[in-house]
Design brief:
mainly alpha, Cytochrome Bc1 Complex, Chain D, domain 2, 36% helix, binds heme C
């Protein structure tokens, strides 16, 4: 009687072990699912303080044609916040940078009393919207040697917007 019980329990135990083994064999308990690495966001245009070496340099950005953008002056005003540390749009108000009053249509380096770099003064072109669009993407590329310590606006829509704002600042 005692013996039988023992056998029985042994049989049960081994059966259970087998069942467990079978179970484990067919379906290995999945280890904790690997946590999907959070996609690293592309770094947002950090504004370097110093004039950066123009890495993406002179190569005109393909497919960014000023004519294909419509500037929004209201949005441009917000973009201009980045310029405001150095520029005012008020007439005659020079700061670290020259006044940008009636910028579109005037000559480069033409603000009386502002001490431009030779590079900016000697550029000798009219600030058309198209020129501004190129300049503002990478000032150092358009005017090599400019003392404007600003890396530029990579986003073409931001450039179109800020140009729209500069045409009629409010
Ligand atoms: C850190 C200060 C600083 C910031 C920020 C800055 N600028 Fe300038 N900017 C200057 C200086 C200084 C000059 C004069 C450059 C020279 O003489 O080489 C200049 C020159 C210019 C000129 C040429 C003006 C002329 O009369 O020929 C334009 C246009 C201009 N900046 C637009 C902008 C816009 C638009 C922004 C914002 C998107 C901006 N700047 C941000 C300092 C700055």
């Amino acid at each position: 009687m005692r013996f039988d019980t023992k056998r029985l329990s042994l049989a049960l135990a081994s059966g259970l072990a087998l069942a467990l083994a079978a179970c484990g064999g067919s379906e290995t308990p999945a280890p904790a699912a690997p946590v999907e690495a959070a996609p690293v966001e592309a770094p947002v245009e950090a504004a370097p303080v110093e004039t950066p070496a123009p890495t993406e340099a002179a190569a005109p950005a393909a497919g960014t044609d000023y004519a294909s953008f419509t500037g929004d002056a209201a949005k441009g005003k917000r973009v201009f916040a980045a310029c405001q540390t150095c520029h005012a749009v008020a007439e005659g108000k020079n700061n670290v940078g020259p006044s940008l009053y009636q910028l579109v249509g005037r000559n480069t380096g033409s603000i009386e009393g502002f001490k431009y770099s030779d590079a900016n003064k000697g550029k000798n072109v009219v600030w058309t919207e198209e020129n501004l669009f190129v300049y503002l993407e990478n000032p150092q590329a358009f005017i090599p040697g400019t003392i404007m310590a600003y890396p530029g606006l990579r986003n073409p829509q931001d450039r179109a917007d800020v140009i729209a704002y500069l045409k009629s600042p409010t």
